[in-house]
Amino acid sequence: MIDYSIKRKCLVCGKEFTIDHPRRKFCSDPCRIEHNKQWEKKHNVAKRLRAKQRAWEVKKQLMESLGGKCVTCKNKDLRVLEFAHKDSNNKHPRLKKREKMNQLTKWKLLEKEAKKGLVVLKCTNCHRIETHEEFWSNDVV
Ligand SMILES: [Zn+2]
Ligand SMILES: [Zn+2]
Fold first, then answer.
1. Which residues pair with 83 in a beta bridge?
2. Which ligand is nearest to the CA of 122?
3. Closest CA to 75 of 123, 120, 126, 119
4. Domain of 68?
5. pLDDT tens digits, residue range 31-59?
6. 21 CA to middle of ligand 2, Å?
7. What is the DSSP letter of 88?
8. What does the pLDDT read at residue 37?
9. CATH of the domain at 64
């Protein structure tokens, strides 16, 4: 049961309103929209989205500079392509120890390595298969 006699203060404009829904926090739709805007601003939603887009652009460019397809099966779907080191010993130390870093930093590091010719493009499938074979080809039993 909702007690319609209860009044609440709108979180945005401070105006008192009668609640018609237990979870209602705003007096009107414009106030609710305004609150969402403020929330997005506070949490840097737009900024984070831009950073994400920027990271994807860098990644995409890097993938295209490496031929834009899997070296093994020629798959061109950028969504499944990943960077593979020809020799995992040449991996940048920060990548090697799987250090936590933002995507952009990661792609920038890989870009440097790609310029040295250490990196190739592989789809998730081929990459997986290869790492698996590497594992079994180890002399250690
Ligand atoms: Zn309001
Ligand atoms: Zn492949």
1. 121
2. 2
3. 123
4. 45-137
5. 999 999 999 999 999 999 999 999 999 99
6. 54
7. G
8. 95
9. 3.40.1800
Q: Which residues of 66-78 are buried (b: 16+ CB within 10 A; e: fewer)?
A: beebbebeebeee
Cα separations (Å) of 122 from 12, 69, 80, 98?
51, 7, 8, 19
- Orientation angle between helical segments 45-65 and 103-115, nearest 10 degrees: 20
139: confidence class by pLDDT, cuts 50, 70, 90 = low
Which tens digit of pLDDT belongs to each residue from 94-120? Answer: 988 889 998 899 999 999 999 999 999
Instruction: Judge whether 123 lies within some domain.
Output: yes
* The model's pTM: 0.68
d(CA 105, CA 24): 42
Output the CA 127–ligand 2 centroid distance in Å: 7
